[in-house]
Structures are given as structure tokens and as C-alpha cells.
Amino acid sequence: MRDTIFCVFSVLTTLVLAIVSLRYVTDFYLLSFFYSFQLHLAAAAALASLVALLVKRHWYGLLTLGISLALAVHGIVMTREFAQPAVDAHRPVLFRLMSFNIENDNFANGGAIADMAIASGADVVNILEAEPVLSELPRLLKTYPYYVGCGIGMQQCDTLVLSKRPLIEPRIRSLGLLWRNRLTISAVDFDGRKVNFLTAHLTKPYYDEFYGLELEDLAAIAPSLPGPLVLAGDFNSSILTPGVQNLLRTEGFGTVSLEPATWPIAASVFGIPIDHIFARAPLRLKSVRRIADSFGSNHFGLMAEFAVDP
Predict the structure, then answer these.
(1) Where do the domains of the chain lie, and which CATH numbers do they carry?
(2) Tens digit of pLDDT for each residue in 263-306?
(3) Which Gene Ontology terms cover its molecular function (predicted)?
(4) How does DSSP assign 124-142, residue by residue?
(5) Of 299, 160, 263, 276, which Cα lies nearest the Cα of 218?
(6) Going by C-beta distance under 8 Å and a sequence separation of 6 or more, which residues neighbour residue 195?
(7) CA-based end-to-end distance of the chain
(8) Are 275 and 299 in contact (CB under 8 A)?
(9) What backbone torsions phi and psi does residue 2 show, to the nearest 5 degrees?
(10) Are 182 and 200 in contact (CB under 8 A)?
């Protein structure tokens, strides 16, 4: 009986470790979902290995435990690669940004989301899958009189960018080949400092090769926007995904040392960060926090504060 239990745990652990370890061999799109969960899967495999060793002491249990811990440690190292140095608490905040995928059928909470955005103190607000707040737009425009999306630049209402200050040359582009008009490009002048904004809504990473094409489009657009640059939105992947890592590495984006988990809602702080706010020097993230209430969405929203290097 003990041998059977040990065998079951060992087989399941081996399968999990094999799937996660394939990231070091291939960036196959069907496995991207598992790559985002590397830390979670490695922790689960380590726990399963410990249970197997309690049932029966065997060298194979020690082997799977060692590999699990190695994958967990490397996952932590990979997230730290893109962490910007902490900003001095006394450095003034240049602006605040809110980014929130509110879910396109979340009409029951459209009014509450609009109330939250108005009271947030954000200078720029990104709302993805924004149809539920379309009816609230006249009220939102009293606080954020400048916007793009939801009738401005696109007929559909997927991405909505609201600003308290004038948007400079706002425009909308498509990413990849699957969905249209899911990228907004704009700039805002904050007291003489021009900051560029990219707001992106990427598709699921396991939808054939479309995700890779969208990342390639972002990598082609980012260099055309010199100076401070913010890239924010719903990436549907964590920064453990090789494609996202390559984008951050080649384009010089950074993030906070510990990104808040935004999905799935039921997992709360134990979920994964698939919604991101990245910054490119000389822009620095002073803080990024998760909005405590999901307001009926299947994502948590994010609030970020930015500063500029002297």
C-alpha cells in the first residue's frame, strides 16, 4: 500500500515538474498558462514530494523535492530581474494611474466602478472591457474630461483611457491578428514632463501563436516612443512567461519588487499577477497596490504612483 501511494505521488509530481521544466526547452504557446504558475506548481510539487517521503523514504522523493525547490527559487529570481530599485519615500509623486479590467458583462457594477474611479485620485484611468461604464461616461468626463476609446478612435468599447489633462496625439492600434483596437497610444504633459502611455489588452497566451504576435507588435511600438513610458493593461500572463520576459528585457521595462496578484479572484493574494503596470526609465514606480474590491470583475484592478529620477 505504501509503495502504491508513493508511486502515485511520484508520478503526479514528475508530470508537473516536466511541464514546468519545458520552459527551459521551448516557449510552446500551449504551455504558457503553466509557465505563469511556475511558483505555485513548484510549491505544490515540493509539498507532494514531502508527502511521498513521509509515506516511504526513497531517493526519487528527494530528487523531485530538490527539483521543485530549484524551480521555485528560479521563479523568484526571474521575478526579481525586472524589479526597479525602491523610490525614496520623500520623492514627490508625478502622477497616479489606475488600470482595471472590469469584465465586459459586468453591467450591474458599472456605476460603482465609475464612483470608485472618480474618487480614486488617479490622474489617468485605464478601463479594459469598458462597456459596463459606457453609460457612466458623461459623469466620468466631469472629472476626466479627456479620453480615447469607446467612440473616440474606435466604435467598440473595449479599451477606455481617461485623463484629467489633455491627451497628446491619442491613437488606437490593433495588436496581432485576433482582436482589433486593443492598444491605445497617448501622452500626457505633467508640468513640463511628457510621459507616453501604452494601454494594452492581450489575448490568452494559449490561443495559437496570436499572443506572440501581439508581444512582437508591442516590442516594435515601444522604441518609437522616446522618454518616459508606461505600459499597462491586461496581459493574461505573469512575467514568468518567456515572451513577456523578453519584451521587458529588450525594451527596458521595470516593475515593483512584488507585483500584486490580480487573478483569479477566488485565490486573492495567492493568485498570479496577470495585470501589469510597467515603467521605462527615467520613470520609476513608487508603488503599485491592488484595489481591494473587484467590483464583480474577474480581475482585481491596480493603482500605481510614479516618480521620475532626478
Answers:
(1) 2-80 (no CATH), 95-308 (3.60.10.10)
(2) 999 998 999 999 999 999 899 999 999 999 999 999 999 999 99
(3) endonuclease activity; exonuclease activity
(4) EEEEES-GGGGGGHHHHHH
(5) 276
(6) 94, 95, 187, 188, 189, 227, 228, 229, 230, 283, 306
(7) 66
(8) yes
(9) -65, -40
(10) yes
